[in-house]
Design goal:
13% strand, alpha+beta, two-stranded antiparallel ribbon, 10 helices, binds iron/sulfur cluster
Length: 246
């Protein structure tokens, strides 16, 4: 059996893909592994890659990558280059970005990144809500797996509201300014109302067309808050999805 190898994350960090978690497939819940289209035969690990803060946005702008989804295109290009330079002898396939649905928030919870906020965007103590999942890679690598995380973490808003999400920053947040900052009162009933949020965002001239005022009001990780252009890019994609499906 090969010895495990430290994860060579520095080249990814330099491109703003600065969050990494490595799972041995054998340690992941069966339903997650079983849901992977095409199966996992020949692979040994699943690598979750994310970004935190503004570095990825800066790297994408500097790269000159354009098109409809420059962040995904830049991410795919960066990962292929990283694998060919750092792990040329390993077999891999990129599951995400891609067409198949993946339980990203569950993987994020297993990595210790995801705890549900009242407005259902993931939050953690370091980055606040200013991070996202950028790639999931299956590989036959032997990287050292990421350490197991606090089993008290919860991805359920009701747990958070009740204070059961022990490692969520929301559990210790007394004022919960995000709730008052939402102009649609989408969290006023003690649970998140997607319907209210969507109705507000769809209005002409909505104050949440290109942002989420609740997210911006959260003080956790505020040093990493996206710039207005990054926010506009992120929220224009979700607004388009809302307009197509609601
Ligand atoms: S303001 Fe408080 S309750 Fe709201 S997301 Fe931030 S930490 Fe959680
Ligand atoms: S996008 Fe706007 S309406 Fe929706 S939860 Fe955030 S603040 Fe509320």
């Amino acid at each position: 059996m090969s010895e495990s190898q430290p994860f060579p994350g520095a080249p990814l960090d330099r491109c703003g893909l600065n969050r990494h978690a490595v799972f041995d497939l054998a340690d992941l819940p069966d339903d997650i592994v079983g849901s992977i289209a095409g199966g996992t035969t020949g692979y040994r690990q699943l690598i979750l890659i994310g970004h935190g803060g503004r570095a990825l946005w800066e790297a994408v702008k500097k790269s000159g990558v354009g098109g409809a989804d420059p962040i995904d295109d830049f991410t795919l290009r960066t990962i292929r280059q990283w694998m060919s330079e750092c792990q040329p002898d390993n077999r891999y396939t990129i599951l995400y970005p891609g067409p198949q649905p993946l339980a990203l928030q569950r993987l994020g919870a297993l990595a210790g990144w995801h705890h549900a906020s009242p407005f259902m965007v993931g939050i953690d103590a370091e980055w606040g809500t200013w991070y996202a999942y950028r790639a999931v890679v299956l590989a036959d690598t032997h990287f050292a797996p990421s350490p197991a995380v606090d089993p008290g973490a919860s991805s359920c808003f009701h747990d958070v509201a009740l204070g059961h999400g022990r490692s969520s920053p929301c559990a210790a947040c007394q004022e919960k300014p995000c709730i008052a900052a939402c102009p649609a009162s989408a969290m006023a009933g003690g649970a998140f109302s997607l319907q209210r949020c969507v109705a507000w965002r769809k209005q002409d001239g909505s104050t949440c067309a290109l942002t989420c005022l609740a997210r911006v009001a959260c003080p956790v990780g505020s040093d990493h808050r996206y710039c207005s252009a990054q926010l506009a890019h992120t929220y224009s994609i979700s607004l388009q999805t809302i307009k197509e499906h609601y």
